[in-house]
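Handover notes (outgoing to incoming on-call)

Open items:
1. STAS/SEC14 domain-containing protein: sequence verified, structure written out, both below. Nothing else pending on this one.
2. Nothing else urgent.
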Amino acid sequence: MPPFTSPDNASYTVSYRSDLNVLVMRWLRPNTLAETQVSYQHLLALAHEHTCANWLLDGRRDGPLVLETAQWLGQQFLPDAARQLTPQLLRLAVFSSPARFEQRLVDMEVAAVVAEATAATQPYQTSLFLDEGKALAWFSEPQ
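STAS/SEC14 domain-containing protein structure tokens:
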């Protein structure tokens, strides 16, 4: 599937890699909460269309982590998406910039929300990566 660009042609792209059975979302600039919500709803619709619960999320250009967005993802959207995609297990490979990776360690407000959202007790699996190749390879590992 060729990449789909967001309606404003500047917010995000999303594509389905049929060879890997992975949906790839790339944010092209920092997004508001509303823009992030639209992009994730689009991703979930494509997940249903392609019966694909493997998502590579490339947030390297999305700027710093925003507490409100992280809360919405971890407390609302991702648990709901995981339930909708059952019996498939939602698996999220989060491809991050070094700055965002570091922020989750030093920004205590964000760190707590990210820790909760990525906890093993969630109804989905999440792993964080600084290398896209390793992120894609993670989908091949046993669950």
